[in-house]
Structure formats: structure tokens, C-alpha cells
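Field reference: sequence -> structure
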Amino acid sequence: MRSSLQRRAPTLLRTISRRSQYEAAIISNAPRPAAAATRPAAVAPQKRWHSSVNADEISHFNALASTWWDPHGSSRALHLMNPLRHDFINTCRSTSLSSSTTVTPEPNSQPTAGQQQQHQAPKLRYLDVGCGGGIFAESAARLPSTHSVTAIDAAPVIIQVARQHASKDPLLAEPTKLRYINTTIENLASTLQSSPEGSKFDVVTLFEVIEHVDQPANFLSHLSNHVKPGGWLVLSTIARTWTSWFTTNFMAEDVLGIVPKGTHDWNKYINDDELRGYFSKFADEQGWDLSSLMVQGVVYVPGLGWKEVQGSEKVGNYFLGVQKKA
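Structure field:
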């Protein structure tokens, strides 16, 4: 164990000096500086995207597609995290719903049919970016409060796995309920150009994705185009700290083997203050309401799963949500 840690430490020390470059790449639209290869050369992807997609990442996740829906397989951590994703979305949306104005009926009066319809919350349209095999997308589509889910991923093999798994559930048979598209966020607008429902959504999700793209600022800029006024962007990622390197790269991949090797590149992790800086810089241009921005740290506890831990966003995994101005 010590020898493995000693072998990995020099690589970590070299990347520390690059931190300011990565922070600049996140807040600007410049691509991240090239990092030393951390995984074997990958097979060329089936499609070539002009985007922030990394070909090695696509190849890596395509190789994991067959075990995506195994709750004890390579995606076990994602299965365990899924309930917290929904909890965080509900927390974000509850803040905006509680601040909205409501009409109070007269005492002892019965609400009219029109008033009842007015107070019924409209069903939500979700866009799940980097959906993988569909763990979150399927669960969101089954919610009674959901109108539809559009889920996209640049990995063709994973999208096929997602479609096959969803086809087993009659509740998801309606074509407009859950739609999987093999595309990138950069190409999504043209794909949805003819959609009668448009290309803007109530909730846009980005779970464990941004740490796998090459141009995070450019990626977020394209995402913002698909969040409707009053809608939410909700994401999760990992802080770039010594602790996160030890837990996700060394322990999870090298020692315990609970995450496939090569899944994480510590260089691409993003601290919450870097994301705050991005949304602050582009608040006026993209319409973000900075007062709505929320962050929640989560920690994986072996045997218990993921737990919310206040302040842990500074050392490891965390959720972040921000709302567009209505």
C-alpha cells in the first residue's frame, strides 16, 4: 500500500503546480491545459464530435456499459447516490416555490375549479446531460411530477444500454416520456430544432460529468442555453483536493477497486469556488440568479452509502444548483 501511494504522489505533486491554469480554464472559455496520460490509449470512438467531449473518456465509459445497471457493479456508487440527487433537486426547487406568491382563499370558502387548476404545479421537463445508462433519467421519468425526460450522452454504446433497459418498463413506453439521444450538448440545439416543446427545460442535470470534459466553461455555456427562465441547473462533481485524490484515485480505484481504474482524472476535478466564480462572471450574460446558488457536500460511507455532510464540498463530492432568473 505504501509503495503504491509513493508511486502516485509525484504525479499529484506535479499537477499541483498547474492549479492556476485549470482555474483559468474553468472561468474562461479556454480549453484545459493538456495533462499527462493517466490511462492506456483508447480505441477511437464511433463518432467524432466537435465539442468538449474527450475521446478517451467516451471509450472508457463505453467499456463499462454492460455493467451499468448492476447495482453491485462498476456503477454501484452512482446507484447509491441517485436518491440524494432527487433530494437535492427538491431542496433547490422548494426554495423558489416557497418564495412564489400564492392566492389565499377567503375563510370557509371552497376553491373554484379554476383556482384548483391555478395551484396545480405544472409537470417538469428534464434534460439529463451525460446520462450514462439512465440511472437518474429513468427514475426522474417515473415521478408523477414529471412531464418528460430528454437524456443525452456522447457514448453510443451506453445510450443503447439505456434504451434497452428502459424498454423493459411499460411505464416508460410512451415515446415522449423518456427520450435518449446520442449527441453532445453542443449539437443538442440543432437536434431539438423541430421539437414542438422547444429546447429549454425546467431542470437541467449534470451528474458526475463536468469532471470528464475538456472545456468546462464552454460546456456550461452551452448548458445555460437549455435552462428556461426560472429553471434550475443542478450538477454534482468532485473538489480538487489532496483528500479527494486519496479517496477517489488511490483508495477507490487502486486499493478497494470499487471504481474501475482510469475513471477519475484528478486534474479535471473542480472546486466549488471555481464554479461560483464562473456563474458570477456570466450571471448577467446567461441570466443566473446568484442568490439562488446552493452547494451541498456528500460523503461516501462504506456500508451506509452517501450521506450529506455540511462543509464536505471543500474536500470531495458535492452538489451545486443555480436558478435562471424568471
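Note: Strands lie at 124-129, 146-153, 178-182, 201-207, 227-238, 288-301, 305-308, 317-324.
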